[in-house]
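Provenance

Sequences were taken from public entries as deposited. Structures were produced by running a predictor on each sequence independently, with no templates supplied. The record for TldD/PmbA family protein from Pseudomonas muyukensis is shown for reference.
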Amino acid sequence: MSTYQQRFEDLLGALRGAVAADEQFTLGYSAEHSQFVRLNHAKVRQAGLVSQASVQLRLVREGRQAEQHITLGDDAGLDRQRLQEGLEQLRQTLALLPLDPYLSLDESAWHSHSLLQPTLPELDEVLALIAREAGDLDLVGIYAAGPICRGFASSYGAFGWHQANSFNIDWSLFHGNGEAVKANYAGQHWSAEAFVARLRQAREQLAHLGRPAITLKPGSYRAYLAPAAMDEIAGMLGWGGFSGQALATGNSPLQRLYNGDARLSPLVSFSEQVSGSLSPAFSDEGSPRRDLLLIGEGQARERLVSARSAAEFALQANGADSYESPCALSLAPGNLASRQILERLGTGLYISNLWYLNYSDLPAARMTGLTRFATFWVENGQIQGPVSTMRFDDSLYSLLGSQLEDLTQEREMILSSSTYSERSTGSSHLPGALVKGLTLTL
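Predicted structure for TldD/PmbA family protein:
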């Protein structure tokens, strides 16, 4: 048993002995032990270690509920005292609250235990590799690595524990003219060869940025969207696209798809692939998660339903978090080999990244955003030069529907680089996409 799990179980034991007979509780646990290194000009500018843990205590009594977030320290006795104080505060708060009409607790005594602990590289090894391969480059980035833990327990006997090692190095290479290539390498199993290959690809793209910029007129262009660009599009779908609540209230960008009024390309199959991912197999509400087929061969299938939405809209809960966004979104691969991307593209746009996306027409699943970081104009399978930043505005039903030509055979595992409050466990596993037409507006 890990030290983190032991600390969690110690708090759980103290809580079980403190609650009254007419009280129910849930206890969520979150911890990390992360190395962080900031890089500039491929040199270490800041290095540090973050070790933190917290619990989310929810108290329920007679149809009312209240929650409190409690930061933990290294003193077990002080942590138990903080938990007891939090419990007392919640008791006082419950007396002031109205009944919660959509309160829904999973009363099953489920158990889940997952340890994903591949050996991570030594920090000295990573930094030496960066110095060797990128010492002459203006590389700016951040490296984060270490274990992330999540736990959950309830007064009904449910218990879940998830601990996973991961690394994420997110960087940009800057050209002397101010242009940049953005790249990322992340996962659970470190490969020096894979990192070097990704860095060398970025170096090759950086050389193309030295050519004169090409300005395109607004219009529709054949385009290849790299996995990082697809990740931005997939991230937008997390804004209610698969949400049971958003679909029930008519506020989902995929409303037409789930109503059966529209379809995507048969090549498109999106799944919530929790098994084997960095995300725990249980939700923040305390329900077991399972893998879900969200879109199968272009047609709507399952949706993400939290316990609260299930109670409000008479749906079947399936372990979604309270915000009902994917935590481990996976898009099935296609038939396009990566080595054939430029050849198959022929003449058109090679888009490494998209930026600042938003919905321009949510019911039509129409998105707008900017090209940025190594977008190139290609002619006859050869990169001609970088393209000046352009705005695109197009519908998902076009990009992943009528205009989708193929998806790549190879997919990229992209871990969330978010470190707000704590390192995220979110991820996506995505191919690149070759589209026959992408609309640029200005």
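The longest helix spans residues 76-94.
Residues 219-440 form one domain.
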